[in-house]
């Protein structure tokens, strides 16, 4: 609609017959062409473009299966990506080096996106039926923001530790999380002089989830945060911690792998 509107505007401006009008019409016409091109490209049947979302929706409606919709979107995305790589390669060999490289790179991106969808489907089939409350570490130990990092740094870095992230609590409020990654960024010599409040990660980078939330959605938030764990809060009360390690244990148990050994927790 924006492209068509700009196109009509270009015609009106160009009809003035003046030099300024013709120059303005050319600029507006270029914007119209770019908008139409972006709209058409966005209809390519490959996720995450809107065309891929349309394919997923149509397949979902016809089969009454969201999983099938994702599968079809993944396949069409892969075909579109392969076609774009082939076209880009042809342009590159024909001397259109910049355009060919850009088209081929876009095709490779679509192929990677289709692979990501397949991996997501595998994860969904593995843990898609679980909620956070079924996976989280319950009744976690906590630490106060005024304490020094050395109190628990060694235990956090122990691979056999019962957790990899500890909530930081001020009174009854969860104000942050301190995990393995934060400790590893510090020099060991600084553990004894660094306060937890200076090393922890707090809001808004630290998300929180409820125990009834689907595990897949919570896992995506955990991954985007880049943290080792996120607090689980119900009705304003800390009830657990969802960690990468706790999710890994569930995946290992469902795939026949061996979960990591656990020892006693923090006191």
**SSE order, one letter for each helix or strand:** HHHHHEHEEHHHEEH
Shape: elongated
Beta content comes to 5-15%
Strand order of the largest sheet: 1-5-4
Whole-Å distance between the termini? Answer: 63 Å
Radius of gyration based on Cα positions: 26 Å
- How does the major sheet shape up? 3 strands, antiparallel
Number of strands: 5
- Percent range of helical residues: 40-55%
Low-pLDDT windows of residues: 260-267
Which structural class is indicated by helix and strand composition?
Answer: mainly alpha
Task: Provide the domain count.
Answer: 2
Report mean pLDDT, rounded to a whole number: 89
Number of helices: 10
What does this protein look like?
The protein is mainly alpha-helical. The protein has 2 domains: 2-127, no CATH class; 132-255, CBS-domain (Roll), CATH 3.10.580.10. The chain has 10 helices and 5 strands; from the N terminus they run αααααβαββαααββα. It has helices spanning 2-14, 19-41, 50-63, 66-93, 97-127, 153-156, 180-184, 196-199, 215-225, 244-255, and strands at 137-138, 165-170, 173-179, 229-234, 237-243. The chain has a 3-stranded antiparallel β-sheet. The radius of gyration is 26 Å and the shape is elongated. Mean pLDDT is 89; it is low at 260-267.
Question: In a few lines, what is going on in this structure?
Answer:
This protein has 267 residues and is mainly alpha-helical.
